[in-house]
Design a protein that fits this description.
Blueprint: H1 3-35, H2 40-70
Length: 71
């Protein structure tokens, strides 16, 4: 099979999970801030940290796709 197909599948499958996770984290964070506006700074800090960890998984998928492409 063509190596480019595997590269495309690696990045596509590797990006679906983090995309869903970031959407859920953002929605939950905004819901929590809406319920308790006084706690917004603490919620926002935790939300941004969780989004960064979810985004790291997508970056790992990109690295794997690049390894497949160039090795």
């Amino acid at each position: 099979m063509d190596k480019n197909l595997f590269v495309a599948l690696a990045i596509a499958i590797g990006a679906i999970g983090p995309a869903i996770a970031i959407g859920m984290i953002g929605a939950s964070g905004l819901n929590a801030i809406g319920r308790n506006p006084e706690a917004a700074p603490k919620i926002q800090t935790a939300m941004i940290l969780a989004i960064a960890f979810a985004e790291a998984v997508a970056i790992y998928a990109l690295v794997v796709a690049l390894i497949i492409k160039f090795v």
